Amino acid sequence: MKIFSGSASQKLGIKIANDLNLSLEKIYLGRFSNDESQVWLKAEDFNTTAVLIQSLSRPVDEHLVQFCLMADALKRGGVKKIVAVIPYLAYSKQDKIFRTGEPLSVKVIAKIIQTAKINKFITLDLHNKAIVGFFESPVIELSAIPLFLEYFRKSNLKNTLVVAPDAGSIKASTSFAQSLGLEVAYIDKKRDLSNGKVSILGINRQVKGNNIVMVDDMISTGSTLIETAKFLKKQRVGKITVAVSHHLFVPGVQEKIEQSLIDKLIITDTIERSNKKQYKKLKVLSVAPIIVKELRKI
Ligand code: R5P
């Protein structure tokens, strides 16, 4: 097995390779003077199973093109099999046609990703489980939830409630609460499609005096969690801890979280941060062991 990591997932790639007692393969990743992406895999032997790691993080379209070029280079180099690890699959929120005239974007992206034949996909916490249906090859969907459960089991959960921040998270939040032996409350959230503004309309039970845990698949603008925290603090809850699989690191969002009523944000390293700033409220858990466990089965 050889590990090839694109520019979106260098740090995670190194962790995964190290855990497998391997090194990342040397690749030249750059741009031609006309701004086109340039990829040159410098592996000496292509007679192998190639693991191609690339998160579709910002700049999304650039990382997407780089992924496709790397997959094509592996195929043409003659690898036996390509296993693509896409820790965060971009465009997954565009999993429906919300208004006439919009594309089914995630299906288009799935097609583009498969221009070179990929034998297996490994990803984490998809926004919508049905997205696997847009892929021809098997998709293994892993989850950061076991990492979050391990974290919370070590903390004081007395007087704690799990809150599902929107309808889409009800199932996952309920099963998360059950695993921790906690009860769950449901938020009624509305998002204005024209400007993205989030409004919290209500909650289905009393939460006064409870500490709150919320789990979600991603933070993008931060509005869902920041607005929910505001709403919950008005109901006089205690500490609010949030665990999110993918932090998209939209510029300025972590700064907003630091100023918000959220007390702690636990994320994973599915998406690499470009700045090295330290944030007081941020804790990062690595998904490398979860991915490595899956890769050992290949
Ligand atoms: C919504 O369906 C998702 O699960 C997340 O709650 C949402 O994507 C978060 O987005 P934002 O941070 O922009 O509110």
TrEMBL record:
Coiled coil: none annotated. The keyword Cytoplasm does not apply. GO terms for molecular function: ATP binding; kinase activity; magnesium ion binding; ribose phosphate diphosphokinase activity. Residues 1-116 form the Ribose-phosphate pyrophosphokinase N-terminal domain. It is an enzyme of class 2 (transferase). Its EC number is 2.7.6.1. InterPro entries: Pribosyltran_N, PRTase-like, PRTase_dom, Rib-P_diPkinase. Residues 146-246 form the Phosphoribosyltransferase domain. It comes from the Bacteria. GO terms for biological process: 5-phosphoribose 1-diphosphate biosynthetic process; purine nucleotide biosynthetic process. It comes from Candidatus Beckwithbacteria bacterium CG10_big_fil_rev_8_21_14_0_10_34_10. Keywords: ATP-binding, Kinase, Magnesium, Metal-binding, Nucleotide biosynthesis, Nucleotide-binding, Transferase. This is ribose-phosphate diphosphokinase. Belongs to the ribose-phosphate pyrophosphokinase family. It holds the Pfam family Pribosyltran. It catalyses: D-ribose 5-phosphate + ATP = 5-phospho-alpha-D-ribose 1-diphosphate + AMP + H(+). GO terms for cellular component: cytoplasm; ribose phosphate diphosphokinase complex. SUPFAM superfamilies: PRTase-like.
